[in-house]
Design goal:
With about 270 residues, the chain is α/β, with parallel strands linked by helices. The chain has ten helices and eight strands. Strand 4, helix 6 and strand 5 form a beta-alpha-beta unit. Bound molecules: adenosine-5'-diphosphate.
C-alpha cells in the first residue's frame, strides 16, 4: 500500500554552527562602558589592551570572536585578558553582564591552543586542563555555551555538569572527552569523587560569582574542591576569582586560593 511518504527531518544537532553562534540582543550598551571606573592593583600589572587584535589570539579564536559579534573588548576584557595571558592570578570585581566570561575564556583557550593541548578523546578518566565553577545551573550553562562558541573548530572540548541532569548522561558526556569542565560545586565534587575526573592536568581554576556561591552556602564545597586529592597547589595552577562584591569572606577566600602576587581588578565599582 502506498501512503504518503513520511520524511523524517531530524532536529538540527546542537553542535550546528548557526545555533552555537546565535546571539540575542543583550540590551547592554557597551559604549557606555568606555568611561567606567577601573581600579587595578597588585605588583606589575600588565598593560590593558584596547582591541581584540592586541589579545594575541590565534586565527580560529579570532574568527570565533568576530562570529560572536564582539567588536571591541569591554573594560573587564581589556584588563583581564592581558592579566590572565601573563599567567597571573586574578581577583576581579565586576557585575554580571560585564563580559567576564570572554575575559577569562579567551586567554585560557589561547594558552591551551598555543601549548598544543591534546585533542580530547574518550577515556574512563578525564583530566581537564580547566575547571570553571559557578553557583547556578543557568550561570554555568551560559559559561558553557560561551566556551563552546569560542572553542568552535578547535580540538578543545568543554563539558557542563550540574544538578538536575541525569548523572549517567553527565558522566557519558564527560568521558567522551573534557578539556574544560564547567559545573556547579556539588556536581563537580560528585563527579570528581566518583573518580571520573582527575586533577593532574589542571592548569586553570575559575570561580565565578564567588559572592553568590557564598550566599548560597557553597563555601564548604568550594574549599573541598580546592582541597581535593590531586588538586594542584595554588603555586602550580592559575586561579581566577570573580565576584560582584568584595566582602571580607571573599577577601579571605582570595587570600587562601590565590598566589600572594595576585592582581586585583575592580570594574565599575
Ligand atoms: P558576564 O560573564 O560578565 O556575566 P557575559 O560574558 O555573559 O557577562 O556577557 C554578557 C553578554 O554580552 C553576553 O551575551 C556576551 O556574549 C556579550 N558580550 C560580552 N563581551 C562582549 C563584547 N566585547 N562585545 C559584544 N558582546 C559582548
Amino acid at each position: 500500500p502506498k501512503g504518503p511518504k513520511v520524511v523524517y527531518v531530524p532536529p538540527p544537532p546542537p553542535e550546528e554552527e548557526s545555533s552555537i553562534f546565535s546571539h540575542y540582543a543583550t540590551g547592554i550598551n557597551f559604549d557606555k562602558y568606555d568611561d567606567i571606573l577601573v581600579d587595578v592593583s597588585g605588583s606589575n600589572p600588565p598593560k590593558a589592551i584596547m582591541t581584540f587584535d592586541e589579545a594575541g589570539l590565534c586565527e580560529s579564536l579570532r574568527k570565533n570572536v568576530t562570529k560572536s559579534g564582539y567588536v571591541k573588548p569591554t573594560p573587564v576584557q581589556k584588563h583581564g585578558i592581558p592579566i590572565i595571558s601573563a599567567g597571573r592570578d586574578l581577583m576581579a570585581c565586576a557585575q554580571t553582564g560585564s563580559g567576564k566570561t570572554a575575559a577569562f575564556l579567551l586567554p585560557i583557550l589561547q594558552r591551551l591552543m598555543a601549548d598544543g593541548v591534546a585533542a580530547s578523546k574518550f577515556s574512563e578518566v578525564q583530566e581537564p586542563e580547566v575547571i570553571i565553577v559557578a553557583p547556578t545551573r543557568e550561570l554555568i550553562n551560559q559559561i558553557y555555551l560561551e566556551a563552546r562558541k569560542f572553542a568552535y573548530g578547535t580540538c578543545v572540548r568543554p563539558v557542563v555538569v550540574y544538578g538536575g541532569i541525569n548523572t549517567g548522561y553527565t558522566i557519558r558526556e564527560v568521558l567522551k572527552g573534557c578539556n574544560i569542565l564547567c559545573g556547579t560545586p556539588g556536581r563537580l565534587l560528585d563527579i570528581i569523587g566518583r573518580g571520573k575526573v582527575g586533577l593532574s592536568k589542571l592548569r586553570y581554576l575559575v570561580l565565578d560569582e564567588a559572592d553568590r556561591m557564598l550566599d548560597m552556602g557553597f563555601e564548604p564545597d568550594m574549599r573541598k574542591l580546592v582541597g581535593s586529592p590531586g588538586m594542584p597547589s595554588k603555586e602550580d595552577r592559575q586561579t581566577l576569582m570573580f565576584s560582584a562584591t568584595y566582602p571580607e569572606d571573599i577577601q579571605r577566600m582570595a587570600a587562601d586560593f590565590l598566589k600572594v602576587d595576585y592582581i586585583f581588578l575592580a570594574v565599575g565599582v
